[in-house]
Write a sequence for this structure.
């Protein structure tokens, strides 16, 4: 299954439009289980056809393909519908699989996609659903298709996401459909794009979430991604030949009549540029939602028309509902609601959850299992063959693993229950109780909602897991309530519920609830990366008498291990959703069981759904045992080889240099070359001793920043070795914990105070708070009361000082600073100079890269000068400044200046003249002693005789020579 995932660009790049469109086509084509067709597949017959559908201005031609099995008898048919952004090509491999099983298969591109004409109506019954009926008419006329009656083919419909909703709506509006298998699709687009997880639920199922009644929280990133796929740029470019087309096209050609009208009517051109392939009412609904973030009746009407929610009671076709546990677009609650609506009138329904979804693809083995399930469903209900699939419930065996980009939980086992809890006559779901505790807490929502917490990036799964298992919660913007460590493991299968008490000064609030798994050492995982948006209106404005709110968390499948804790976090922001513009401070607490409205409690009960069943290996897994045995054997061989190689590497590379503690930094023959042939650093070698303040000098392009980035493990050298305290430095090297750095910008959060920025930074390291030496670092910043003001009010110099204090947190043994005095005034520069000298005097080491040569001269004890990626010279400041002959001569009587110039100019290798600093003698090989003796011998009184050359002069001379 190809997940619907999005690419977010901050700015367009020249020539990138075609690449983006091709990537969107690849990533957004939601076929229903697109896999490589089986090896050795037999030849099948195919026919590419154009199918007229609709009438008048809404008439279209659908691009379709019919796959014919190798049989002389009429066979049941299956219509495969593709996902949003895809085309008939997206499901071609699935079609081949089904035709080899003996089905006639019809694939097609929905109107507005692929090579079909028309504009997108989001599965509007008047358009896309009517097109499906037209295709059924076509199948009924084919001799190869088995009929139930005249004009009534024996047919099933399957599809994922956009195609899954079409299967549901098609079965509701066309009773000729005999079985359907919709996957990872929606129940209500209104609830999907404007979710609100508040309110009581009257159902015994495991994953039900409250439907949106009045308003919800706009899921702006997902909505923007959808609209972007069908935006004017892609549609119009393809229509006029300016973008990708054919198999790789991300958009369909616009109807010819629209192009003709556009050529004569500027208003039509504007409509195309604004709405692209969408119908005008869809475009207007999105623009309204995107600009206001609110659900208007007009927007709701458009979304409800494209939702199966209102017509589920019409569906009589047996339904296999497949939903993913890693899906921030259409969560498990959508399948739950569809199952309740269809089974309510006695239609057979089977529910299958798998470890995947729009945010992360399932494994190949899982996808193969689902493909078998879909085929088995059609075998039974279209042919009366195979094993009766039943109406049970299957879900991946819960594990304590979190999702990462490209990987989801699932240990190769599935739990099978005889029935879906609470569905039809089934017993309601069992719910366990977990006690949460925590005081009432203030929660700040920033003006404009920025910065916002990071949980899930649409299409990319749990971003936090990819970053090491922790989300980006913003201090001050959330309340947290936690259980005691669990005595026994708790397996959560579905949507948990909890009651909160909330107050807001405005009487309304937007919040996001999420349930974390907390390990004994404090590590956190957010199962599925899922959050529950809460849209609260009419709540109390008095924190002492808050309003009680019932909250349903997202449906998950997760095992909280013994010794772990459950942490409920309620935050005011989430980057995937539209947020209020006005700043406010909410009051959020737990509501104790049975407490009346307005009662504030310190603990509450989290009700967690649990499902019993038998655990089975995934279908088809036995065939993997032989492969697994081979992999294990290869693994053992690889392990043995790794041991031998590891010993060799440890002897060669991973040794600790014996003088490492005395030499905090050593570059040995380091080169950094790029694929285009550019060499940024060439054969760089130098070392820094403990207690030194080293200045790294060089013009732009000298390789200074590249050298620092290699030192910090951000990039790898092409050749050579960098060692920090005797250990090899590289990405993730533990020794880098002894290094503090400030390079390329402050990275401070503008809405937080300087103190909060320092606290947040240190918390992100995961090290104990007492190791931060916060007060020493704050003393470095020297901001006084300003430290507790928001950073956005700071001057550049103030930001610079906080960033340097941040680099000094933990008092690192090696401190690396890039342009530390930028934005500082002279008194601040003087203070910074003293700070760095005193820091090095404690036995630590400081490296400063700067273009202010006078500051390097006054601050640093040693200097490395670079040019064109190479080291020119290294030494103490005195050694470098003292080389060369430029002497400042101070005379007791200025009247002697002309005579002194004449005396000096007569000496070989000496040039003398007046300067702003006074009389200067340039010595080219002449000795200073000879020059002084000549002046004294001529009877000229000399008060001052000092080397004049400064570091700037030495630098310019050295760089010029290079």
């Amino acid at each position: 299954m190809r997940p619907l995932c999005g690419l977010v660009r901050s700015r367009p790049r020249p020539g990138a439009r075609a690449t983006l469109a091709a990537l969107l086509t690849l990533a957004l084509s939601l076929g229903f289980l697109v896999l490589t067709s089986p090896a050795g597949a037999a030849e099948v017959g195919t026919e590419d056809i154009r199918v007229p559908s609709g009438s008048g201005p809404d008439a279209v031609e659908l691009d379709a393909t019919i796959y014919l099995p190798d049989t002389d008898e009429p066979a049941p048919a299956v219509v495969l519908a593709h996902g949003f952004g895809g085309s008939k090509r997206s499901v071609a491999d699935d079609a081949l699989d089904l035709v080899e099983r003996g089905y006639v298969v019809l694939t097609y591109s929905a109107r507005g996609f692929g090579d079909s004409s028309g504009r997108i109506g989001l599965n509007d019954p008047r358009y896309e659903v009517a097109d499906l009926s037209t295709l059924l008419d076509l199948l009924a006329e084919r001799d190869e298709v088995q009929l139930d009656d005249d004009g009534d083919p024996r047919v099933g419909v399957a599809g994922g996401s956009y195609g899954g909703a079409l299967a549901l709506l098609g079965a509701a509006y066309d009773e000729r459909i005999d079985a359907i298998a919709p996957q990872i699709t929606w129940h209500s687009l209104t609830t999907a794009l404007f979710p609100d997880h508040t309110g009581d639920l009257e159902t015994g199922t495991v994953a039900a979430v409250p439907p949106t009644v009045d308003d919800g929280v706009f899921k702006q990133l997902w909505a923007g991604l959808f609209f972007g796929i069908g935006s004017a740029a892609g549609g119009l470019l393809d229509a006029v030949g300016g973008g990708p087309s054919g198999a790789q096209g991300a958009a369909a050609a616009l109807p010819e009549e629209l192009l003709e009208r556009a050529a004569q009517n500027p208003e039509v051109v504007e409509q195309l540029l604004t709405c692209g392939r969408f119908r005008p009412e869809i475009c207007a609904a999105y623009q309204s939602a995107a600009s206001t973030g609110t659900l208007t009746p007009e927007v709701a009407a458009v979304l409800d028309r494209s939702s199966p929610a209102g017509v589920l009671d019409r569906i009589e076709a047996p339904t296999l509902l497949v939903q993913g546990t890693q899906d921030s677009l259409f969560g498990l609650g959508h399948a739950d609601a569809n199952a309740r609506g269809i089974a309510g009138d006695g239609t057979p329904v089977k529910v299958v959850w798998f470890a995947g979804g729009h945010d992360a693809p399932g494994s190949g083995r899982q996808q193969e299992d689902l493909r078998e399930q879909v085929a088995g469903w059609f075998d039974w209900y279209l042919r009366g063959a195979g094993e009766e699939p039943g109406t049970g419930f299957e879900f991946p065996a819960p594990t304590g693993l979190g999702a990462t980009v490209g990987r989801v939980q699932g240990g190769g086992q599935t739990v099978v229950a005889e029935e879906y809890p609470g569905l039809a006559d089934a017993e309601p779901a069992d719910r366990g109780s977990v006690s949460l505790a925590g005081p009432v807490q203030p929660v700040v929502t920033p003006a404009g909602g920025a910065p916002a917490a990071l949980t899930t990036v649409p299409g990319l799964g749990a971003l936090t897991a990819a970053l090491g298992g922790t989300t980006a919660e913003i201090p001050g913007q959330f309340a947290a309530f936690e259980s005691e460590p669990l005595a026994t493991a708790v397996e959560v299968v579905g949507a948990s519920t909890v009651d909160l008490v909330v107050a807001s000064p405005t009487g309304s609030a937007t919040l996001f609830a999420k349930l974390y798994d907390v390990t004994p050492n404090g590590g956190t995982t957010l199962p599925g990366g899922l959050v529950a948006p809460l849209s609260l209106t009419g709540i109390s404005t008095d924190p002492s008498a808050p309003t009680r709110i019932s909250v349903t968390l997202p449906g998950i499948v997760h095992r909280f291990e013994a010794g772990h804790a459950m942490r409920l976090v309620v935050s005011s922001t989430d980057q995937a959703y539209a947020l209020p513009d006005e700043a406010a401070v909410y009051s959020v607490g737990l509501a104790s069981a049975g407490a009346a409205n307005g009662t504030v409690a310190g603990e509450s009960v989290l009700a967690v759904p649990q499902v019993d069943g038998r655990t089975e290996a995934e279908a088809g897994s036995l065939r993997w045992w032989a492969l697994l045995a081979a992999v294990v054997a290869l693994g053992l061989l690889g392990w043995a080889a790794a041991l031998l190689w590891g010993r060799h590497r440890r002897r060669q590379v991973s040794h600790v240099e014996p003088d490492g503690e005395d030499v905090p930094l050593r570059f040995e023959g380091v080169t950094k070359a790029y694929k285009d042939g550019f060499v940024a650093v060439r054969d760089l070698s130098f070392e820094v001793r403990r207690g030194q303040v080293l200045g790294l000098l060089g013009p732009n392009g000298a390789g200074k920043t590249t050298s620092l980035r290699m030192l910090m493990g951000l990039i790898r050298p092409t050749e050579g070795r960098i060692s920090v305290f005797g250990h090899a430095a590289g990405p993730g090297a533990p020794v880098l914990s002894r290094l503090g750095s400030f390079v390329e910008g402050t990275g401070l959060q503008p809405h937080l105070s300087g103190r909060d920025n320092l606290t947040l930074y240190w918390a992100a390291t995961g090290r104990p708070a007492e190791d931060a030496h916060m007060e020493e670092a704050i003393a470095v910043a020297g901001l006084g009361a300003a430290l507790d003001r928001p950073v956005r009010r700071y001057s550049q110099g103030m930001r610079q000082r906080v960033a340097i204090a941040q680099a000094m947190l933990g008092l690192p043994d090696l401190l690396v600073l890039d342009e530390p005095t930028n934005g500082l005034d002279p008194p601040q520069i003087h203070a910074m100079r003293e700070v760095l000298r005193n820091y090095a005097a404690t036995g630590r080491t400081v490296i400063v890269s700067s273009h202010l040569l006078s500051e390097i001269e006054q601050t640093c004890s040693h200097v490395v000068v670079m040019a064109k990626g190479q080291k020119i010279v290294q030494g103490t400041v005195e050694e470098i400044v003292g080389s060369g002959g430029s002497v400042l001569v101070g005379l007791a009587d200025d009247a002697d200046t002309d005579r002194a110039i004449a005396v000096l100019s007569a000496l070989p290798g000496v040039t003398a003249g007046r300067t702003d600093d006074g009389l200067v003698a340039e010595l080219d090989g002449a000795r200073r002693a000879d020059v002084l003796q000549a002046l004294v011998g001529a009877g000229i009184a000399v008060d001052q005789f000092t080397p004049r050359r400064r570091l700037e002069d030495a630098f310019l001379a050295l760089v010029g020579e290079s």
